[in-house]
Write the structure tokens for this entry.
Amino acid sequence: EADIYQTPRYLVIGTGKKITLECSQTMGHDKMYWYQQDPGMELHLIHYSYGVNSTEKGDLSSESTVSRIRTEHFPLTLESARPSHTSQYLCATKRPGAGDEQFFGPGTRLTVL
Amino acid sequence: GENVEQHPSTLSVQEGDSAVIKCTYSDSASNYFPWYKQELGKRPQLIIDIRSNVGEKKDQRIAVTLNKTAKHFSLHITETQPEDSAVYFCAALKAAGNKLTFGGGTRVLVKP
């Protein structure tokens, strides 16, 4: 079944560590997105991609980086984690049509001590 | 850019009553307006959407209305049930756009 997969689902890590949050999809969608969300709160777009080798910064300034080498894969990297990065990170995909549904992954809950 | 305002931020209703959430948008070029429901600990999921060529859309107990002139759209939930308790997000997208602009969310609590 087509879906979006995020790993790890939960991560507790110390300040200063480098981390990569993985997002992979079998939806066959070109567009992919990363959102930061404190539980139940507003969704903040931090990065997005239109396709392979395309990456754009979102509306919320972020100290993270992304890459899109393969259509299915859109990893998010924090070079040096800080307590302010503690949040939930949601990956999403969207079909090419302008009015088509956007699908969300299950999220990664990150805690930086 | 687009700006979407959502009200109220929290809404408590008695089971069986109706709930209404309102959103306003700023960019008249927006033409697609989805609503997402996010249950506690779960991912947001699309529950209903409306395009700008339609004024109202209904799916069982939920309906969405759109007023293009006033640039606002609303979600209506009738005969609320405890399982309707969740955070609801409205969003807007421009024609040929690629980024949804989300409202700030409404936490709905349905009291039995």
Summary: Chain B has a mean pLDDT of 95. Chain B has no helices and eleven strands.
